[in-house]
Amino acid sequence: MLDAVTRGFITLHPAAAARTMARLGGRDIEAIFSAMPRQLAGRVLEQMAPGSASRCLLQLSPAVAGEILARTPMLAAVAALRLMDAKQTQMLLAQLPRPLAARLRLRLRFSETVIGAFVDEDVLTLSPDFRVSDALRHYRHSGHRTGQTLAVLDEHRHLVGVVELADILAASDRRLIQNLMQRPRFVLNARAALQTVRNHPAWLTHDNLPVINRNGVFQGVLRRARVMDEGESLVADVNERHELTTTRTALAEIFWMAVGALFVGGASRGDRNTGEH
Fold first, then answer.
1. Which terminus, N or C, of the chain has the lesser number of Cβ atoms within 10 Å?
2. How many whole angstroms separate alpha carbon 49 and alpha carbon 239?
3. CATH superfamily of 125-230
């Protein structure tokens, strides 16, 4: 188990921890990731460049790697799996719950240059039959990420409209969502090339756009921040987005390295002692 100070730092500064751990050797990575709570390890993995995340997962036992991967956001998990060979990918997917493994396999079928590879499916959706009070209760308890525009789906998960969060908050509790929703002005196809929407005029007014497959089934949303973050390369290195750190973060990272070295050093000495006996 991690000591309280190390765990507290990783919880508050997962990006700094990710940068540091990406520079560690295989034994140290295994020791620290295995000791971390799986949910926290998933947050750290999300902050890593895909190559570093992939390398870290492959340093772990399949069971531990699977537990962490199951708690890693979909986009980060897919990015790491793309860099593994087919045998390694199947080995890790076999450790996951079947529904999650199926979702990851489906996402991996998309080329990394198309919209479907970057869809965020962990979003709040509403039914047209919801009253505003139902929608607000759903919003409070869902735990999903949301934006200013919410998708409204029918029982077959077809996109039937969108509704602005501001309109829901301003409406009376008994009003139906179907009376507040509008036809979506912009809908993206999951098979379209990501480059085709980089300069889409919708980004001037929308923070996310709904994405459907060829059968019209809602897949999730493409977020403006995600598109802009891709920059020149479609598979941007997330470390590049964290290079300019503040002095406070830099000092915190030095502290983390010192504490981490103590933890790992203790684990390594224990391994050597075991071997000597």
1. C
2. 6
3. CBS-domain (3.10.580.10)
Q: What is the mean pLDDT of residues 2-8?
A: 81
Q: Give the C-alpha separation, 107 to 124, whole Å.
A: 19
- Bridge partners, residue 151, by sequence: 125, 162
Question: Domain-by-domain residue ranges, the chain?
Answer: 4-110+237-276, 125-230
Confidence at residue 103, expressed as pLDDT on a 0 to 100 scale: 85
* Cβ atoms of 121 and 144 closer than 8 Å: no
Residue that the structure tokens 């520079």 belong to: 23
Residue 275 identity (one-letter amino acid): G
Instruction: Please state, in angstroms and rounded to a whole number, the distance separating the CA atoms of residues 249 and 238.
Output: 17
User: Please, which pLDDT band fits residue 256 given cuts at 50, 70 and 90?
Assistant: low
Instruction: Read off the pTM.
Output: 0.58
Asked if the domains 4-110+237-276 and 125-230 are classified in one and the same CATH topology, the answer is: no
Cα separation of the two ends of the chain: 24
Run of H or E including 210: strand 208-212
Helix/strand/coil for 143: coil
- Separation CA 220–CA 94 (nearest Å): 25
**C-alpha distances out from residue 204 to 201, 212, 225, Å:** 6, 21, 12
Cβ neighbourhood burial of 100 (10 Å; 0-12, 13-18, 19+): middle
Question: Class of the 4-110+237-276 domain?
Answer: mainly alpha
**pLDDT per residue as tens digits for the range 84-111:** 999 999 999 999 999 999 889 888 887 7
pLDDT at position 72 is 93
Q: What is the mean pLDDT of the chain?
A: 82
The yes-or-no verdict on residue 245 having pLDDT over 50 is no
Q: Which long-range contacts (CB under 8 A, 24 or more apart) does 143-146 make?
A: 145/120
More confidently predicted of 262 and 39: 39
